[in-house]
Specification:
CATH class: Alpha Beta
Structural class: alpha/beta
Number of domains: 1
CATH architecture: Alpha-Beta Barrel
Largest sheet: 6 strands, parallel
CATH superfamily: NADP-dependent oxidoreductase domain
CATH topology: TIM Barrel
Radius of gyration: 16 Å
Length: 194
């Protein structure tokens, strides 16, 4: 499989990242593991999920995709072969601090993701959405702390508009914090105007 360098990280990732949105939701554990096995056997190494996957489904609380992925990695003992990306920021509960990029939520979210993923580090931890209620400096300082603690290797952004991403990069440089190394924008091959 074609490999590409991820931003300035030096990590080499498969050009085709496997999205785990359906794991633990419309795809049961056995099928999820078959898909994950096939992806790795085809030479892939880059798997994306999020803490909120699949909170929207009746009976689910969020984290089902991370749990399915963690169960698979633990059973296969293949964590070192996977570049693992997950995201935070979506609502994981009804409380005022159960979403977003405030420090309190970020620290709780990373611990919950690490537990569900059955790992002690996340390769790429991404802000799922821009959080305009939390100062950028606070969010970036939180990410910086997670990298310094060894819980996260690199950070990224998802669903951010260009000017906010540019501002975040400027804030990171200004304060000496880690920077977003990649952007995961919404893109749909079928519906191009979305």
């Amino acid at each position: 499989m074609l490999m590409r360098k991820l931003g300035r990280t030096g990590m080499k990732v498969a050009a085709l990242c496997l999205g785990g949105n359906t794991f633990g939701w419309t795809t049961d554990q056995k099928t999820s593991e078959a898909v994950l096995d096939a992806y790795l056997e085809a030479g892939g190494n880059f798997i994306d999920t999020a803490d909120i996957y699949s909170r929207w489904a009746p009976g689910n609380t969020g984290g089902e995709s991370e749990t399915a992925l963690g169960t698979w990695m633990a059973a296969r003992k293949n964590r070192a072969a996977v570049i693992l990306a997950t995201k935070l920021g979506g609502p994981m509960g009804p409380g005022p601090n159960d979403a977003g990029l405030c420090r309190l939520h970020m620290m709780q979210a990373v611990e919950a993701s690490l537990r569900r993923l059955e790992t002690d580090y996340i390769d790429l931890y991404q802000a799922h959405w821009d959080d305009r209620d939390t100062p950028l400096e606070e969010a970036l300082r939180g990410f910086d702390d997670l990298v310094r603690q060894g819980k996260v290797r690199y950070i990224g952004a998802s669903n951010h508009v260009a000017w906010r991403l540019a501002r975040a990069l400027w804030e990171s440089d200004r304060h000496g914090y880690v920077r977003y190394e990649c952007l995961q924008p919404k893109y749909n091959l079928v519906i191009r105007d979305e």
